[in-house]
Structure formats: structure tokens, C-alpha cells
Amino acid sequence: MEAEDVSRAEDRAECPGSKNEGQPDVAQPDFPHGGQSPGPTALWEMLERKFLEYQKLAHGSPAEHQQSLLNLLPLFLKAWENSVGIISFPSLQSLAEDISNQLAQEIQKALVGKPAEQAREAAGQLLRWKGDVDQDGYLLLKSVYVLTGTNSETLGRVAASGLPALLLKCLYLFFVFPLEKEEVLENDVQVQRMFVQMLLNICSESQGLERLLSGNELQSLVIATTCLWEHSCCFWKEPTFCVLRAISKAQHLGIIEYLQAMDCIKLSLQNLSKLADTLPAPKVSESVSLILGFVKDSYPVSSALFLEFENGEGYPLLLKVLLRYDALAQSEVDPHLEELLELLVWLTTCGRSELKVFDSITYPQLEGFKFHHESSGVTVKNLQAFQVLQNVFQKASNPVLCTKVLSAIRTMWVWNARNFFLLEWTLQPISQFVEIVPLKPAPVQKQFFQLLEALVFELHYVPHEILRKVQCLIKESPESPCALVALQSVLRIAGRDLLFTDIFRDSGLLGLLLAQLRKRAKILRKSGNKEPTLGVQDPERELTCVMLRTVVTLLRGSVRNAVVLKDHGMVPFIKIFLDVEWYREASLSILEQLSVINAEEYMSIIVGALCSSTQGELELKLDLLQSLLRILDTPKGRAAFRVSSGFNGLLSLLSDLEGSLQEPPLQAWGMVSPSQTLDLVLHTLCALSAALHLDPVNSDFFKKNGLFEKLAEDLCLLGCFGAQEEEGAPLHSEADTKARPFADLLSAAFASASPFPPKIQSCLQILSFLDSMAGGTLHLRRDLKEPPRAGQDPAPHAQKEDAGSDPQGNFKLWPDLEERMDEGDAVIIHPGVLCIMVRLLPRLYHEDHPQLSQEIQCSMASHIQSLVKSEKNRQVMCEAGMLRTLVASCRRALTTSTSPLHSGLIRIFEKLASQAIEPDVLRQFLGLGVPPPPSAATKILHSSCVHGGDSGGSGSQAAEAGTAEGPGGAAPGADPCSAVTQALRSSRTSQGSTTALQTSLSLISMTSPRNLQPQKAALAPSFVEFDMSVEGYGCLFIPTVSTVMGTSTEYLVSGGIGTGAARSFPPLGGLTFSCWFLISRHSTVTEGHPLRFLTLVRHLARTEQPFICFSVSLCPDDLSLVVSTEEKEFQSLDIMEPEDDPEPSAGRQLRVRCGQLLTCGQWHHLAVVVTKEMKRNCTVSTYLDGQIVGSAKMLYIQALPGPFLSMDPSSFVDVYGYISTPRVWKQKSSLIWRLGPTYLFEEAISVDTLEVINKLGPRYCGNFQAVHAQGEDLDTEATPLVAEERVSFGLHIASSSITSVTDIRNTYNEVDSRLIAKEMNISSRDNAMPVFLLRNCAGHLSGSLRTVGAVAVGQLGVRVFHSIPAASSLDFIGGPAILLGLISLATDDHTMYAAVKVLHSVLTSNAMCDRLMQHISGYQIMAFLLRKKTSLLNQRSFQLILSIAGTAELGFGSSLVTNVGVFQHILCNFELAEQLYKGRCGRCCRIYGGKK
Predict the structure, then answer these.
(1) Do 547 and 483 meet the contact criterion of CB atoms below 8 Å apart?
(2) For residue 535, what pLDDT is reported?
(3) How far apart, in whole angstroms, are the C-alpha atoms of residue 262 and residue 218?
(4) Is this structure's pTM higher than 0.90?
(5) b/e burial code for range 555-579 (CB count within 10 A of at least 16 → b)
(6) How far apart (Å, rounded) are the C-alpha atoms in residues 1224 and 1034?
(7) Which of 267, 336, 634, 1451 has its CA 20 to 30 A from that of 497?
(8) Helix axes 335-347 and 399-415, enclosed angle (nearest 10)
(9) Is the predicted pLDDT of residue 679 greater than 80, yes or no?
(10) Does 23 score more than 60 pLDDT?
(11) CA triplet 854, 792, 632: central angle to 5 degrees?
């Protein structure tokens, strides 16, 4: 309970109104017996009555009067306790006066006439709680304690009694004279707290403070705290200091004058100077802090004490006291030391005026640095005080003391950044500290350099002189621990701004580091590149690492520093560090920075290191590949990679992995886990993907050199894939194999508890890598260090997701790839990689797991099929040669109908072949499953039987037809063939019929027309596609359409081809522009991107601005065709005026709405005919699909470009053209369109000629010099539609090639090569960039000079497709003979219908097939075969024959005979008709008669 009493007493000292519960019983007032204790009001009323009675006794004896007062005290304290500190007593001041006087008398009585020790004991006995005996002193003390906490008036009455001086004297006695027995009771603690709180309350009022100064008690107490440490009372030390601090903080002028008059500061400093060397440092610092507290608190009122401190040798005392801490072994900061340093820091701000310094800032400085000349905030004015701090740091070695000094300096900088400059330009503390910091402990070194870094990071200031000294420190002792700390700081500073790369180069630090690294590299090489032990602290190794990282930072973004490193010959030495894993990352970064100035050297180093690394150095290979990936992100790096044989190096890396994934692995790979091998495969494929990504040169190089095939071979040799063909493997029917989606298989394979064997897991993971690589996203994955193993979701192309998507976020799409995606279609960036997956497809079979292998194969085939759903992807894969790969790699699956892969691969083949298939590939496909051909004698026999001696065609063609129809060509008994043929037929009938049906069904799928023209079905032409959604531009650039020369112009300035004179422009007789086009997707109205069919631009030599002179475009606003002859400046869109502001010049523009005539996905023919008339007039007529849509009178193209009316005789005008959007008009939009054959004629073409051109269709690729009218005999001489010299250019994909600018210069001329190189933004001497050239098909014709053709400009916005559909390729491998052979092989009505359907599809879409049929007498052969197989014809087959003839077109207009051969030899063959159609002959005759 005593402890609780003490606590409650303390609370009441702070809050006088609190209750005094638990207090020892004092003399309680008398209350009536048996009644309850009265309430607070009753107590105060009772006290009031008794106090009045007490006052009436004033004339009595002093003893009675004193006793009466003492009797009131218990009642007063009881009332105060019960009223929660709220005093309701009207005569409070009178009571306070009497009680204070009484206490003062008692203390005076106890002290007077006694020695100090006895007086101290008497005072203690007076105030101490003594139980039930003699409580008067304690009651008086407690009552005064309560009264001092009430109000100012009451406190004034207490102070007037003289009590404050007596209390201060008692405090002096308590502090200076300790009791012999230092027994401290709880009651003593309570009395002490009340005593101290009374003094604190008195100090809070000026009246009380003045009473404290009435004697010399305050002087004695202050001096006692500085000289009587050995004899002072520990129990009263803290209360004494507390009271003195309260007196100090009062900031009373009287106190300041008192202390000055009594020489308190001077005497205290003298005393402390004597005791500083003997007393413990914490005690001395506490006393010094007390004295400095008086100085600090008085300074705002008067600087007298501050001056007294300075004159009293206060600064040397501070230095002496602080240095006392240097000898202490302390782990924690002493609070007295912190307080003293805070006061010392404050002293630095004391002074009469601002420091005057000269501005000596050294430039360059960081951006954002500003030196404020005016003072703002707290600034340093007292250099003497700061010199104490400076001297302490210079002389001390204690880490705690030194770090606190540095923190104090940092605090000054935080106050005001100007303080650093004020100090550094006067005392130079930091510069001096640099010289001695190596002698300091490690924590001090670390904090010092952090202080140095704060100058850069927080003040944005570059301390050039300090950094030079730091550099000298590193140079003088590079092996010291301090050099390591300093270099780490320099590393952080250098990374702050690129400015430091120049500063540290000019200061010589870069050269110093390079010299040190050369030295260490030599040592490392001599030691044999021994790998340091991991986990062992090695300062030498750490210093080398920091040096390397610092060099990396100094090289980053600085070409000059990279040149310095190369000039120092450091490349061979940096290569030495690659072998040590600890230094590898920084060494690779240095080499990467060197690639900026010499990418080829970097690539040769990396590729060489990859090829020379051993099998066990997997980490080295992975790190090298990681570095390679970073450099391959730049075009310069990709070019250097190709030149440095990077592709061969990476492929050799895969070759070295041969057998590493087989079970068990080869002996060389026994210590390498499959996951490590797959990680290396992943990184290698990532590097290949990065090297190919959006780089046409590398992609062309990779394809031309057969590296896709080499990559496929290397992957096959890893060991996880099976053999090429598992001939003995059992085949399950398709019904037995229900394949899961490819994405699900990958998820199962990479699950934590995968049920798949390791080899199959490896196969699936490699396939997922290839799948991502095909989509162009493999090198962009974020988890290169860890391939998507167990627990991670793989990133394949899901069946119903866009390719390149990644549900786990491991992939990031290249910005342009997102816009290349058709809705719901996958993006195929590297089609050659998809061909590799096809090559690996048959190798996914494993004998140990046949069912799982076939499921994976089927899932993979289904996945590939989903990737080629879109027309665009089919065309892309056709261009990549996927059909040839399918036939070569999956021959068995394509041949065997029972294979589970058969139907899927057949569907893929059919989808692709409908777009383009080379004749030899189609021949191989048609030959799949066909039994070996019979002997030559059998061929001749069949040939004679079939033709009956009629040699209607060439021998080879007849032989082919006979071979095809042999097995089922004639009815039994009617065939004069030999017995050999009969035996062959019986053995091959079943197999031949099945093969014929399968082949027919495939050909139906391949040849069914997918492009419907308004009047007929037609084959899609080859085209150039322009996609504005990717880069916003893409065009065909047509150089040197014409060159208008002056009278004295040299001939060499003109480009073009031919031997004639320069072609004039504008043409004198007018012009005609003709093209076939297809719109896949319009641009929106808000995008405002027109479809530009043709833009002709002219440029006058020695002038800057080219001008557009003629343009044909389709406006997206209202789908209006716009033809303009207005001269406009040819400039970029951002500086062009808005299109809707300037009105077109009168008579310069024709605008025709044709939106209702255009259909997306359908080929249209556009013709613009400009007929020149008298003077400058012309008539412009526009035709769409042969129909005129608009015509108007306009002004013809003016003679010279722009505002020019004449030109210099030595000058010339160059005319060139664009089809679609050039780079200067770059504007992303949703527009996608295709361009077919395009022509420019220098005359106005007639309407009849345009009708013929329209009928020829988009697949016509000639120059209109030998055109046969429809139905005209081919043997007759054809007449030209357009004169040779009038054909300016003709562009179509059939006459195109991939070349280079250098080849164009060598083959054609230098002028055109320069123009093309400028347009493509490449060097005119470039021989690597593939240039797609559409040669001018009119280049060989007679006439004036013509353009060489057109080149495709735009890496992603232009796509070329060579259309060779199966219906067209058939013409090159037998054509009609094959189709007739299918009819001859039919043994049932289904096969017959399929064969006739194929013939119908080909004949209705391919006019050349009809001509070949006529050439080989194919219709007669067909009639013969139908007569032999009458029983196999049904209603549907007959309907197809009528459709071929044109008498029953399937939905295309009225019945007109379009195929005379079928009509004449089949429908009008009445012998055949009698067997076939019975009652239908009448209708046939009527039709035939009508034709006649």
C-alpha cells in the first residue's frame, strides 16, 4: 500500500485537485459518532465556521493561535480530498497566508543557529511523516503544497511569506549534505515529490521567482551542482537539477541579472574545468549541460550569460568533456552526451551577425541545384562552437562519439542547406575529415560517406574538391577497408546522374579503376581463375566487385567512357572476369555497354564464350544468354549478332545438348538434371526469338540459310523425341483417342504431381517454348530464369485464346503485336517455328506410352489447326512452306486413313492448299497411298484402249490419263485389253476406289471457290496487303515514274529502265489508272484514314519541297472516290493543315460516292480515265467493276510542280509515286486492304477496253498485248489492247522477287537504288535488308524509260502473298488428266459424285483447265468414261454436269451455255444421253438448237 500512496501523492502533486486516497491517517477532524461522513459542501462549510472561530482568537496567545491553525489543517485536507481538488473556501487567501507564515516560521526555527549538517537533519525531521506523533510539519508542507497549486493570487500570498527562499535553502541542504544512512522510505519519496512540486509551482510565477533571489541560496545551489559531486546526496540530485532547469526555463530577466552579478556561470565553469579530468564523463557532461541550459534559455532575453560562457573558457571545457567520452567503451549513446551535443549544436547558431563568405561553387552542378545567397532558416553564426565539433571528430576514435558528431553536422544541413557552404568555405570540415576517415572505425567511415552522399542526394550539390580527395584516398590505399567503403559511396553517387560519368572520367577515377582491374585480372589469370569459396567473407573479392560495378555505372549512358575503356585495352581483361561467377554480372554489363560502340566485338565475345564453354558450365551459359537477350533488344545488336555468326553459335549450343534429355542421358550429361537442360534450351530459344523479332534481315537470313531445319534437327537430337517414323507402332482408330486440349495437356504436364513421364514432360515443355516463339512472345517472358515447370501455368496458345496470351502474366506482348491480331485469331510471327512443330509431330510418339503419345499428337495437330483458322494465318503458313513440311514429315499419317492424326492433318493440308500450294507438293500429296505404277507396256495398252487409236493429245498426257483410268475404265467384255490388265484391275480396284474418294474429297475442299465475284466464281489473285493498324503506314514506293529533264540536263540523273528517251510528264494524251483491290476492313470516320490508291509526287531539283500532282483515294467519311489534280505540298500530317479547312481548288477534284458498290472481302476493279482536252482541261471518268460511277470536267495536271512556271535548263523534275500510305502520313487506323494487278497507261483507255480488262479478272498478269476475247479460238492471232509505248508500268506479284538495294543498283541503276534506300531509311550501300520488288512487267516493252517497279515500304504494315491455289497448281502436273483419272477410278456413286464435283470446281474457277481439256480432247474422254460408268451416275452428279455446261448454273443467272465442250460431247452425245437422262434429251436438244 505504501507504493500506491507514493504514486497517488505524485499524481496530486501534478494535479492538486485529486483525492488523497490511501494516505496515512492524519489527525482527523471530529465528526458525530454513528453518522455518515459529511459531504464536500458540509466540510467546506464546517471549515469556514471553524476558520472564523480561529480568526476570533487572533488576540489570544500565539501558542493557542498556532494550535488552532494546526487543528484546521486536517479538516482542510479532508475537504480538499473529498471535493476532488475543487476548493470552495472564501477565505482561502487568508488561510494560505497564515499557513505559509506558520511553515516559514517552523522552517526558520528548525534552521536558525545550527550548523549545516544539523540544520539539514532538523529540516528533514520537520517535513517528514512521523506517524501519529508530531504531524505538524508534514501537515503544513502538504497544505502549502495544495495551496501552491490553486491560483496565482494564492501563490502570491505563499511567496510573500518568504517561504520560497527557505525552501530553496532546504533544497541546498538536502543536496549538499547527505545523511549518514541513506535509507529512503516511501514516505520520504512522497515528501520529496511534494517539496519539489511546491518549488516548481513557485517557479511558474514571477512573484515566486523574485522571492527566490532574495538571498544567495540560488548561487550556492548552482555552484554546488558543479563542485560538490563527491559529497552530494544522490537522492536529491535529480530533484535539484529539475528545480534549476525550471528556474532556467523561466527566462526571467531578474534571474539572468542575478546569475551575472553572482558570477554563477564563471565560477561553475572554473569548477567544472578542475573536475573534468577526475569525474566520470557522464556526470561532468550533466553539469555542463545544466550550465549551458541557463545560457541557452537566457539567450533570447539577453546574451550576457552567453558572453560570460565564451569569456569563461567554455569552449575548451566542452572539448575536454566531449573527449572524455573517447576513452569510454560504450555500446549505447549516453543521454547526457546527446544533450550536450544538442546544446553545442545550438551554440553554433549564436552570434551577432551572419557569416560572410565568398561564393566558390565549382561547376558543373546537378540540375536543380541552386545556391541561396540570402539567409533563410537557421544558419551557423558561431564558428568557435563548430570548431569544437570539428576538433572532437579529428581527435576522437570512439565510434559512438564520432557518429554523433557526424549526425550533429547532418542536423545543421537539415536546418539550412546554406550551412554546408558556410562551414565548408571557412573551416573545410568535410574536406579535412576525408584525410582522417581511414583512421576511424568502420561504422564511422560508413556514416561519413553517407554524409557525403547526402550532399548529392539531398542538396543536389557536386562537391568536386571533396570527391577529388576521396579519389586520392582510393588511389593511395586501394587495398584498405576504407577504400572499399569509399568506392561503394562513389558507386551510389555515380548512379545518381549521368553528369558523374563525365566528372569521374575527367578526374581520372575511371582510369584508376581500369588500372586496378587490369592488375587484378592478371592475378586472377595466374591463379587459374579459381572460384572463391561461397559464404566466406573476402574483402579483396568484394572490392573487385565494387570496382567492376562502378565501372559499369560510369559506362552506362556514356559513349566517351566506353571509348576510354576500349582505348585502355581492357576488353581482354574483362573477359577474364567472366569465368568467375562472383564477377560475371558486372563484367557482362561492361561488355554490354561496350556494345554501344562496337556491337560486333561484343557479339563475338559472347558467342565465342558460349561455344567454348564446357558442358558443366551451365550457369555461365545462362548468364551469357541473359546478357545476349538484353543486347538483342536493339536493332544494332541484332545486326551484329547475325554478322558475328550468332545463329550458328546458338544452334551449336543446342547441338552440344545431344542426348541430354534421353533416358538414361548420355554419360556426359549424367550430372545435369533435365530441368537445367530445359532451362538452357529455353534461354537459347529466347535468344533466337529475340534475334528474329521484328527484324526482317535476320528473319530472311535465318530462312534462306535453312536454319529452321537445322533448329528442328537439333531439337530432335535432344533425346526426348522419338524416331522419325514408328513403322511398327500399332495404330488406334480415331475413336479410341479422345485428345484433351493442348493447353490442358501442358497444365497437366507442369503440375506439381504430373502423371506424365519425364521424356513426355520435356517434349511438352519444348513444344510450349516453340509455340510461344511462333507467336513472337518467348523472349518477352518475365521468368527466364525459371521455365514454367510444376506449379506454373504454361503459356501455350490455347484452343480458344489468342496466340501469345499468357494467363499468368509471364508474357508481355510487343506493343505492335496486339494490333496485329485479328478478332479471335492467333498471331503467327515466326511461321518457320510452326513448321518445326510440324516436323516434331511424328516424333512425339513413344513406344512405352502409345496411348498418351497419340493423344499428345492429336492435341498438337488440333492446336496447329486452330492456329490456321484465319485466312491470313493460312496464307502466312503457305508462304513459310508448311505444306511441303507436312508431306515430308507426316507422310505416313497422311497416307494411313486409320491413323488418329490422319483427319486432322488432312484438314490442315486442305485449308492451306486452298490458298497456295506448289505443283510439286500437290503432286506428292496426290501420290500418297497410290500403288506403284504398272509397267510401260501396260501404260501403252491402257492408252490405246482408252483412246481407241485417236491421238487427241500428246503422248505423255494420254499416258497419264490412261494410267489414271486403268483400274476401272471400261465394262467387262468390252475392253480389248490383255489378261495382265485384267489381273491388275482385280487387285487394285478396292484400294484405287478408296484412294480416289479420299483424293476427290480433299480436292473438293482445296478447289472449292472461296472468292465469289458478282458474275462467277474465281480464284483469288496474289496481292499486297496494307494493314494500317500496326504501324499506321505501309506502301508501295514507285521510283522514277518519269523524269522531266531540262535542255542541258545530264542523262545520268534519271533512273528507270529501258533504252528510250526520258518519259514525259504529264502525258500529252491523258492517262488511265487501273487496279484490282479488296477492302478487308474500313477505317472509322473518326480515324479519317483514306485508302490511297495512287499518289504521284513531283520534285524539282535544287528545291526543298515536293508536291503532289495527282492522287486517287477513297475517303472514309462517306466512302467517296476522290480524284485530284491539285498541287499540294507533300509533307507530314502533323504540319499539314486540317483537311476540312481549305477548300479544293475549283476544277481540281472529282468526288464520287460509291459506298453502295463496294463490298468488304470482294475484289473490285477500279479504273480512272483522264482524257486530255484542249488547253489545260481534261475529263476524268471513274469506273468500278466496269461501270462508270462518275465523270467531270477538270483542270489537267500542270506542267511543273507547285508554284514553278519554269525551270533551269540544267535542272530536272523527278516524278515518283506511292500506293497506299507512306511513312510521312503515318496514322494508325483499322484500315486493311489488298492490292492486286495495277497498271498506269499514258492514254485514255476506251470503255470497251476497260470491259475486257474487267472480264480478264484479277489473276491476269500480262501487259494486254495478246488478249483473246472470251470464246475466241486460241489459235487465232491475238491483238493488243494498249500500245506498248503507252504502258507506263504494270505491277503484279507474279513478277516479283526479294532483292537488296545493292542488287538494285547493280542490276538497274544507282539513282533508283538511292531513292529506294532513302524511302526505306537504310543505307544506299546496304546489301542485307531484304527488299520486296514488284518488277515493272512492262519493262521489256518498247518505248520511253519506265520505272523499275515498286518496292514494299513498311516492315509490319505490308504483307505479300503469292496465290497458287490447288485449282491453278493442277495445271502444272497434268491438270485435266488427273481429274479424268479420278472419274475412271470411281466404283460407286459417292466416288463418282466426288470426282465430278472436283471437275466442276476446277472448270468453273480456272479457265486454263478448260483450254487444257480442249487440248487433250478431255471432253471426249470424259464422255467415254461416263458411258462406261453409267450406273454410277445419280441425280446430283448429273446436276453437276449440267452446271459445268452452264445450262443449270447454281444460282448464277440464267441458263446459258458457258462450256461448249461439255455441251457438245456429253449433253449432245445422244447415245450417252439415252442411257443417262432418258426424258431429259428433249430439253438438251432445245438448248443446243437455240445455240445453233
Answers:
(1) no
(2) 54
(3) 10
(4) no
(5) bbebeebbebbeeeebbebbebbbb
(6) 10
(7) 634
(8) 40
(9) yes
(10) no
(11) 95
User: How does DSSP assign 1030-1079, residue by residue?
Assistant: TSS-EEEEEEEEEEEE-TT--GGG---BSSSPPPPSS-TT-EEEEEEEEE
Provide the phi-psi class of 1238: left if phi over 0, else alpha when psi is between -120 and 50, else beta.
Answer: beta
Closest alpha carbon to 437 in 382, 393, 491, 500: 393
What residues are paired with 1081 via a beta bridge? 1232
Task: HSE, CB side, 13 Å, CA atoms: give it for residue 576.
Answer: 20
Q: What is the DSSP letter of 195?
A: H
**Residue recorded with cell 537445367:** 676
Name the residue with cell 510573500.
160
Return the minimum-mean-pLDDT range out of 143-152, 529-538, 929-938: 929-938
User: What is the DSSP-derived secondary structure letter of residue 1431?
Assistant: G
Question: What residues contact residue 128 under an 8 Å CB cut-off, 6+ apart?
Answer: 137, 138, 187, 188, 191
Label residue 665 by pLDDT band (50, 70, 90).
confident
Query: Residue 767: helix, strand or coil by DSSP?
Result: helix
Region of 33 (left: φ > 0; alpha: ψ -120 to 50; beta: rest) is: beta
Identify the three-state secondary structure at position 1152. strand
DSSP label at residue 1268: P
| Cα separations in angstroms, 1459 against 752, 802, 1362, 1441, 1474 | 67, 46, 29, 10, 21
Grid cell listed for 1184: 468500278
Q: Take residue 1315 and report the three cell numbers written for it.
A: 531513292
CB 1100 within 8 A of CB 1201: yes
CA–CA separation, 1199 vs 1107, rounded Å?
12
- CA pair distance 587, 594, nearest whole angstrom: 11
**Closest among 709, 717, 601 to 653, alpha carbons compared:** 717
Nearest in space to 371 (alpha carbons), one of 437, 419, 299, 433: 419
> Regarding predicted confidence, which is higher, 809 or 1325?
1325
User: How far is residue 556's CA from residue 495's CA, in Å, rounded to a whole number?
Assistant: 9
Q: How far apart are the C-alpha atoms of 1254 and 867, rounded to whole Å?
A: 35
Per DSSP, helices labelled H in 477-538 are 481-494, 499-506, 509-526
Distance CA 1400, CA 1462 (A): 11
- Provide the 3-class DSSP secondary structure of residue 586: helix
Residue 248: CB atoms within 10 A of its CB come to: 24
Q: Report residue 1059 as a C-alpha cell.
A: 533504252
Please check the confidence at residue 705 and state whether its pLDDT lies above 90. yes
The rounded distance, in Å, linking the Cα atoms of 540 and 303 is 56
Give the separation between CA 370 and CA 184, rounded to whole angstroms. 62
- The pLDDT, as a whole number, for residue 5 is 39
- pLDDT for 34-66, tens place per residue? 445 677 788 888 888 888 888 777 666 778 778
Listed in order, strand segments (DSSP E) in 180-276 are: none
192-251 pLDDT, tens digit per residue, is 898 888 888 888 888 878 888 877 888 888 888 888 666 778 888 889 889 889 888 887
Distance CA 1420, CA 1436 (A): 21
In terms of Cβ atoms closer than 10 Å to its own Cβ (0-12, 13-18, 19+), residue 1096 is buried
Q: Which of 1235, 1237, 1080 is nearest to 1162 (CA)?
A: 1080
The amino acid occupying position 86 is I
Rounded Cα distance, 1114 and 313, in Å: 96
Per-residue pLDDT of 358-404, as tens digits, reads: 777 888 888 888 876 666 678 899 999 999 999 999 999 999 999 99
β partners of residue 1042:
1215
- Round to whole Å and give the CA distance between 548 and 1234: 55
DSSP letters spanning 587-629: HHHHHHHHTTT-HHHHHHHHHHHHHH--TT-HHHHHHHHHHHH
